[in-house]
Write a structure and sequence with these properties.
Layout: H1 6-9, H2 28-32, H3 35-43, E1 47-49, E2 52-53, E3 58-60, E4 63-65, E5 70-71, E6 76-78, E7 81-83, E8 88-89, E9 94-95, E10 99-101, E11 106-107, E12 112-114, E13 117-118, E14 123-124, E15 129-131, E16 134-135, E17 140-141, E18 146-147, E19 158-161, E20 164-167, E21 175-177, E22 182-183, E23 188-189, E24 193-195, E25 200-201, E26 206-207, E27 210-211, E28 216-217
Parallel strand pairs: 1-4, 2-5, 3-6, 4-7, 5-8, 6-9, 7-10, 8-11, 9-12, 10-13, 11-14, 12-15, 13-16, 14-17, 16-21, 17-22, 18-23, 21-24, 22-25, 23-26, 24-27, 25-28
Antiparallel strand pairs: 19-20
């Protein structure tokens, strides 16, 4: 089934520095199981920061941060982490172990990224949690988005596509977002969600399961309008 394979979601891996992590993987979530070991070999104990770095930033563990990147105040980088060229890590961001970014990536104000792969040109806005997830080239994640990455019962997460269930064999799995897709403000994705490329999820929705490529999801909202008395508030 094409919709479950890596090639369905990501068409630009040839230009991604860390494309080798996708090799020998059939399903996207298999990549997430490889990030920490990949970084252990890639970094080989390095603590290299070529970025323009503001005050009050904290660096722990092993990391590589490439040239042209800007790290704003009060950022925490907890390795193993690899951050590419010309990225922006906004004030208060928390980049946790297992995180890999390509080039020209933005991680927004007070956002948290953990054990995730952000491909070239991704932008994560303010107050976002991205956990155990993969974002395709130029994906956009709006303010307040939460990618839920664990079930309440802490059991292994299954992925359901077109009625067929696939086992991730992991109790951590967030969202797979295809190239050039967008999640609007305050969207929540449930564990094991798959979103095809060029798909827009409009603000405020809760999304689960499989969303095909080149679709637009809109909320269905009804309002009750009543008369309201005039009142001067204190």
């Amino acid at each position: 089934m094409e919709e479950i394979k890596i090639e369905y979601y990501f068409k630009n891996l040839d230009n991604f520095e860390h494309r080798e992590i996708f090799e020998d993987c059939t399903y996207p979530w298999e990549v997430l199981a490889k990030t920490k070991e990949y970084l252990k070999e890639k970094l080989a104990g390095a603590q290299i920061n070529k970025a323009e770095t503001a005050e009050n930033c904290t660096f722990k563990g092993n990391y590589f941060i490439d040239e042209g990147t800007k790290i704003y105040p009060n950022v925490i980088i907890q390795g193993p982490v690899y951050i590419g060229k010309n990225c922006e890590i906004m004030p208060g961001a928390y980049v946790r172990p297992g995180t890999i970014t390509g080039d020209n990536v933005v991680i927004g104000f007070n956002s948290e990224v953990k054990n995730s792969v952000l491909q070239n040109g991704c932008k994560v806005a303010s107050l976002v949690f991205v956990g155990d997830s993969i974002l395709g080239k130029s994906a956009r994640i709006g303010s307040g988005v939460v990618t839920a990455n664990r079930r309440f019962d802490q059991g292994n997460i299954n992925v359901k596509v077109n009625g067929e269930v696939y086992e991730t064999k992991s109790d951590y799995c967030g969202v797979i977002v295809g190239d050039n897709s967008r999640l609007g403000a305050n969207v929540t994705t449930l564990p094991g969600t798959l979103i095809g490329p060029y798909t827009w999820i409009l603000p405020g929705l809760q999304v689960r399961g499989f969303v095909p490529a080149e679709k637009r999801l809109l909320p269905k909202t009804e309002y009750i309008i009543q008369d309201n008395p005039r009142m001067e508030l204190k």
